[in-house]
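Troubleshooting log. The previous structure file for this entry was overwritten by mistake, so regenerating from the original sequence record. Sequence copied from the archived sheet and checked twice against the printout by T.R.
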Amino acid sequence: MAWSTLAISEKALLIYEPPIAARSGVLFLLDESPPPFLDPDFRSFVEASPYLWFFAFPEKSWWSSRFVPGFHPNRTPEGFILGDCLEEFRKRLLGGSILLAGVGCGGQAVLRCCFQDPTRFPAVAVIDAAVDLFEVYGQGFTLDSIYPSQEHLRQQSPYLFLQNYPYPESVWLAVSPDSFWHRGNDRLLEKLKVLGVSCELELFSGLPSEAGWFQKPLKDSFQKFLDHHLSQPARLHLL
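Regenerated output below.
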């Protein structure tokens, strides 16, 4: 097993490669807060899995679909993920399955990508997803310079991309009752249920930026979701 860094289009990603060459993998979009793999339990979970993992850092871009000064000269953060990162994954897995996952603003971006193109991303997993990201607009984050108003940011909410059929096949949500994002995740769960989307909301204690948050039954639930969907052929249709 090996952890290493990989440069893709001038952006550094952290990757984990299992001892035996993986045929499936997880592209994990991180948050602006400390990454979950700093927690020993989450790191051990990754190392015990048979999958290839790519961890992508937002670098204060909040994974926006707009051009963000300082992120990349000719890529939007979302475009970097959907283009460069997935293309590199495709090369390494030789046609294997890829699942999008994320935490915080990374989780929000994963949901947005899934709801915009559920045929390409039929199943996704998110932890403490910043579903209502617009609620922190005006609090001094770089979001304030990326979007001209709170309403412009609200228009990027995952809900608004759930307007037309087809809908995603399966969405796995996990959030702490103590999280600022709990209410938004709960509302999203209800909307997905109304639309008939297979979904579940796993509650856990603590926050992903804190030690000790990644415990049973969260760990088992996440493992079950990954194993089920990554065992399926052609789970992601790459261009």
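The CA atoms of residues 39 and 212 lie 7 Å apart. Archived copy saved in two places this time.
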